[in-house]
User: Fold these one by one.
Assistant:
Number 1:
Amino acid sequence: MTHILCIGAGYVGGPTMAVIAKHCPQHRITVVDVNRQRIDAWNSDQLPIYEPGLKEVVEQARGRNLFFTADDIEQHIDQSEIIFVSVNTPTKSFGQGAGRAADLQYWEKTARQILENSTSPKIIIEKSTLPVRTAEAMAHILNTNPNGLHFDVLSNPEFLAEGNAIENLEHPDRVLIGGHDTPSAQAAVQTIVELYANWVPRDRIITTNLWSSELSKLVANAFLAQRISSINAISALCEKTGADVSEVAYAIGTDSRIGPKFLNASVGFGGSCFKKDILNLVYLCEQHNLPEVAEYWEQVLKINEYQGARFVANMVHAMFNTLAGKRIALFGAAFKANTSDTRESPALAVCRELLAEHADLALCDPYALENARQDLGALARKVTFELDPYRAADAAHAIAVLTEWADFAALDYQRIFQSMAHPAFIFDGRNILDHKALFEMGFNVYAVGKAPRLHFNDIGK
Ligand code: UDX
Ligand code: UDX
């Protein structure tokens, strides 16, 4: 039996360890976190995050070979042979690199905590996304210890997408493990390969050098985000020319070199990773004196901000240039469907901009309202939080769809139309509704990258 520890019971650490525990009953997995409330939630029926299939996996392994605790972290460190570090690495908000670089204080603190509490050698695995060459710094901290203990630092970035985490962990496209080219590090890499080989086909387990692994995580997210910004940039052109962005995306996506995924035009991408990782990449390029490369990737973020701002500008313009005092139902707070996560959610960015227009907002989401309330802080008291979309839309002048929850496509829009103020507007920021049918019901319909369907010709001119 191997003792495996994970430090950080967040969106990544919790689900990843649950799936490892499920497939490796021969190992004992402990997940620790400084946040006791979060640990309590992991030990309850109300898990701290909503993720389809997660509860079943946790319930299967919890108490058997999966343990969540906020106690005796020091002792757990000492007892473990393998330690995954999955603490958060937010964008630095102060000092050098503020707004771009990763804030590594939690990572470094964790490395020192591991060092202070270890009496035996260990494999340390970076799960958190980190700037390239962080492992080197960590290895320096860990391996300059007075006891002569040796730590192998590996990189094993997580590619799971929220809302799909369990599926991604059960059937990953690939598992990436990076380690130095030393016998000790290579032996450590093999140990982790064997761990994943309990359920992942071996041809999907890629081993690389440490820096390639660290950089691949940033680059994967930058490429994914770049596709969305590319199609979103084209959506602006579609709205001007009468082309339909869904048709364009389909037409280009059938080219097998381009492929169909991640081509849905939207109000913008959100989530904890894309912005942070691209900023990280930009900072890295600047640090290595590659300003052209930095600027190239930064443009992916600029288009994303432009897309959200453009969405709100379209709303203001369409609704006779004033939203003051008008009730608007916002369908969606989560940064994407099937998650309660609101980090960097475009829905909340739109929410803030509409509040600046003095709109009267009813925010509706099946799982993310509590997180939204926290994220909005002082602004939350200006918003009505509504679980029921029919109540949110009651007497509203407009609906804006901001998260692609399937439930929002299945509502009775005839009923909604009748309960709204008229003329009634719908702004589909996710292109999930039947625009023709809505128009025929009487809505004025705006969708991303499509010509608006309007009942009077002079709106928006
Ligand atoms: C984290 C990183 O932010 C991301 O870069 C990486 O790719 C995966 O891991 P996530 O799991 O989404 O992502 O973060 P979060 O949900 O914030 O969880 C981190 C947890 O670490 C928190 O529960 C926090 O309390 C805990 N933590 C943080 C510690 O236990 N100790 C610390 O010193 C700091
Ligand atoms: C992403 C990566 O997909 C994952 O591999 C990595 O480990 C973490 O970052 P995640 O942030 O959970 O995962 O969500 P993802 O499904 O990538 O969506 C990110 C954002 O892009 C969401 O706001 C989503 O709504 C948006 N999106 C996605 C689009 O606007 N259009 C698309 O075609 C796809």
Number 2:
Amino acid sequence: MQIKAPRGTYDILPPDTGKWQHVEAILKETAENFGYREIRTPIFEHTELFERGVGTSTDIVTKEMYTFRDKSSRSLTLRPENTASCARALIEHSIYSGILPAKWYYIGPMFRYDRPQTGRYRQFHQFGVEAFGSNNPYLDAEVIILLVEVLKRLGLNDYELHINSVACPRCREVYRKKLVEHIAPVKDKLCSDCQTRYEQNPLRVLDCKEDACHRAIAGYPTLFEHLCHDCARHYATVKEALKASHIVFQHDDNLVRGLDYYTNTAFEIHIPGIGAQSAVGGGGRYNGLVAECGGPDLPGIGFAMGIERLLLAVDTLAGGEANESKTDVFISIMNDAYEQQALELLTRLRLAGIRAEKDYMGRSGRAQMKYADKLGARLAIIIGEEEIAKGFYTLRDMRGKEQAKIGGQDIINSVKHRLATA
Ligand code: AMP
């Protein structure tokens, strides 16, 4: 048996879990401030949901899904992203006929069979938001402002926000034909992935990472030049709203989401300085998605951020603030005979909301004090022969080392008072 987590997966151990809790608390608080409420969907779904909801020509569906058959031969897939699941939940629970927009956020693991490297894993975590039911461009702006606000609250002020409009299916179809005409003569110069993209989904040639492909298609017509009146107005309003909110962004002709149900606003946010995987989040409008998943024609917009990359950025650029839980009080016993008294006091302290700890390894008195220091305890309560005989506790300040004798009735209040004033 191999004692190693599967490739592309890893454990999160204390004290690192404290960092995760800190980041997750900020993500949740920001989303709630913006009026988004939490949704939790299953880790696996019917494979078909992702084929329809992510798109059969995408890398995710063609190469990266963890798909398996259960004992009843159903094809199931570990979720590679969460937007399709949210659309499924919206339809299944008829949320679309309730109060709109439905504004949701989620935090949880996603699974993609990708080549692991720093910032890229096979099980990774995303924070995302989805707003269903409105095509108002100010909602697009709200979602982007939320994305930026998350970074600000994490102390990440150095980011690059790219935005584009991927149009509506009608004006995009006109554009697609022009793009195909432009690429056709240079098709053979494209990388093998782009040759396939050219056949299946030519817009995706634009976001290829290979320089050679970009050189080959230089001078290509842009989507921006082909927006219909409504799409152009929608995009202009989003940009004005962002400017008015002092959000710095740049228009990016190469940013495309080449699926029919992605519409209008698309955006991506990068943090330079965290390595090759600098994209921390991306999203856009998907007005055709709910219908594609079998629901009514309901618009939607959202984004997803990679939490591993946020943590990497916080660690390398913002000083890696941790939220490590420290012990408040350590109970030290001078003799095994006082285990029961220590346990009872421990419970009283904990029920009063105080983080209390004792030794379980048979350490000597001195070793218990060293251990208390390691745990970060601010106070120690010593139970020895004299304390038991006379019915008091010795309360020690771990920093100043001064000690006081405290009666059994007063110990909880004394500890609370000292913690509050220390
Ligand atoms: P996507 O769902 O592909 O638009 O990705 C949204 C965000 O999730 C990206 O910007 C990354 O921050 C993060 N992400 C995507 N794939 C991975 C992965 N394999 N490992 C870690 N983070 C990822």
